[in-house]
Design brief:
homodimer, alpha/beta, Rossmann fold, two-stranded antiparallel ribbon, 7 strands, Acid_phosphat_B-like (chains A, B)
Chain lengths: ~270, ~270
């Protein structure tokens, strides 16, 4: 990773405001202090490390649901998020969530009535839109509904492999799989085709946003749909989603599994 | 960080089982493949990077509440957790949670009735027991109640500075601060002294486990206490804790803030 000078500036302007002991101080400035005795390359690598840690903290805070709603990845973390999303970190994070979910799924003695359910979100949970986001700054650009819809309509999103493995395990254990997505009803056909082409099969139900659900916060829409499932008798044991709004609200599952996603936030 | 040979073994034995494509394969083994053309030092650094990423994933999974209850830090992540807890990563994670919580606290227009409340857990939220855990493997040793009690009775736990800042901000904004801890009633006096010596002041209530609460899961005990607060008329706006059992259950706060803690898990 290279850090252009702009980023040095952004690093300080972004973090200095929040943490007073990080504020540059001409009397005792870390950067000035080392300017002569140490080579510039060391300064860069220290700042790179600093930026990496701060952006990792930002990602952690998101995964722990500590952040207020956010519109885009912070400018100074755009490169970090890109590296994370295209590197091993994202894959390993997906793998451990899939593994933990699978172990929980196996640990439950299901009833014979076929009413034990596992809910999956679709985007960034079963299907990856990375080809789209790679062309749009990995969350650094403001989300564009029209462009994203055009991408969805291509029906070429990729399977998230660790999720596909969990999906198969959950199906084979006898759970009823319910897909609950923020995608619109008008995208049903392309979504079904995309899911099947990516290797997903035999879901019990695919719930998309109807015209009645338009404008509802995701957390409300999804809670309502889970409440309907419970009224139909389903026991919601597991729920996998990349947004906290997939998992929180009411009628929440016994265990929920938060997949990583530092690219966008849905309330 | 140095990785002794034992860790190489542990790395493979720990992760290989879960992720089949990571299983060593004599025909196509990454390590064997590079044994001649590349120096050993590169192998070590690749494995170090691998271990770091896997252990970061384990920490992330914990912070996102994806892990099943665990007893100790996984052996292969003991060094990683120690480095995290004693390095900048932990501090930055604490700082961003404090900052986000403070922004939320400020964003609320409090009522005049003095019933807007903010709950803080104590251990690893307001007070740090790092001197104790540094002598006990940073979560690598099985938790020892007697030894930990002896440490608590010294009353020398340290303030977590970013939490102290949030605490002051929340107090000054006019919230009623309620401390809700898993510590026992018999530790009230030493806890009060420790908190005051660490700079905490003017809490409205300090709730410790009474004999009635003995043996209750933390998530139950804390939910019951929050429910009592609500019955007394309090509106629980914020809740800061390092365990998900501080934050989940019933009578949950409007926003909750999960402080990092990869050293221990309380159900």
């Amino acid at each position: 990773m290279t850090i252009p000078l702009l980023n040095l500036f952004l690093l300080f302007s972004f973090f200095a405001l929040s943490f007073s002991h990080e504020t540059p101080n001409p009397q005792n400035n870390h950067h000035n202090h080392h300017a002569f005795p140490r080579p510039l390359i060391i300064e860069y690598s220290e700042l790179e490390e600093e930026l990496k840690l701060r952006c990792t903290s930002w990602r952690f805070a998101g995964e722990a649901n500590n952040l207020s709603p956010w519109i885009t990845v912070p400018k100074e973390c755009a490169e970090h998020v890109k590296e994370y999303m295209t590197g091993k970190g994202y894959i390993y994070d997906l793998e451990i969530v899939s593994k933990e979910a699978g172990e929980f799924a196996k640990s439950i003695q299901l009833k014979d009535d076929g009413l034990d359910a596992w809910i999956f979100d679709i985007d960034e949970t079963l299907l990856s839109n990375l080809p789209y986001y790679s062309a749009h700054g990995y969350g650094f650009e403001v989300f564009d509904h029209e462009k994203f819809d055009a991408w969805v309509e291509k029906g070429v999103a990729l399977a998230i492999e660790p999720s596909l493995k969990l999906y198969e395990d959950v199906l084979n254990l006898g759970y009823k799989v319910i897909l609950l997505t923020g995608r619109k009803e008008s995208h049903r056909a392309v979504t079904v085709d995309n899911l099947i082409n990516a290797g997903f099969r035999d879901w019990h139900q695919l719930i998309l946003r109807s015209s009645d659900d338009k404008g509802k916060l995701a957390v409300i829409y999804k809670s309502e749909k889970r409440s309907e499932m419970e009224k139909e008798g389903y026991r919601i044991l597991g729920n996998s989603g990349d947004q906290w709004s997939d998992l929180l609200g009411s009628s929440i599952s016994v265990r929920s599994f938060k997949l990583p996603n530092p690219m966008y936030y849905i309330a």
